[in-house]
Structure formats: C-alpha cells, structure tokens
Amino acid sequence: MSRGSSSFNTGQMSVGTTPVLIVPARATRINVTLSPSAAVKYAIGPASNVSLTTGLVVYNGSPVTLDTAADIYAVAESPITISFVEYY
Description:
Oligomer: single chain
Number of strands: 8
Low-confidence stretches: none
Helix content: under 10%
Shape: globular
Number of helices: 0
C-alpha cells in the first residue's frame, strides 16, 4: 500500500484586507495546509471575491487543511503572512 504524496511545495503570501490568491490551482494536489503568522481572523475561498462575511472564516491563528485542487484566495482582518504546504 502506498502512502503520502510524491511531491510537496511550500510558500508564504502576505494577506491584507484585499483578497489575494495565496495558492494557485494544481490539478494533482492532494491537500494543502495553511498556517497564519498571527492570531488574526482571516477567511479563505475559491474566488477573488472572498470576504470575511462570505468565506470560510478562521479564528485565533489556527491552521487549516483543505483537500482541494482549486485556487485558494484569502483576506484578513489585518495584515498577516500565511504559510502553506501543499502535497501533490
């Protein structure tokens, strides 16, 4: 039985009060984990119109793992850096 993925990629993106693409789509992605640099409320979503009222809101600087191959956009209550690791 095979476990894990054959490759992974890491990065960091600055996120502020305007939505930004933090992880571009990758057809072969298994999952991606996002980890913020501070305990700031932020939201994630699949489109550039994500907001703190329409996106998946993450509180208290908690990391989140998503099983998706789609684009991931983010917006924050105040500026933060979001680090990511994606497995594909």
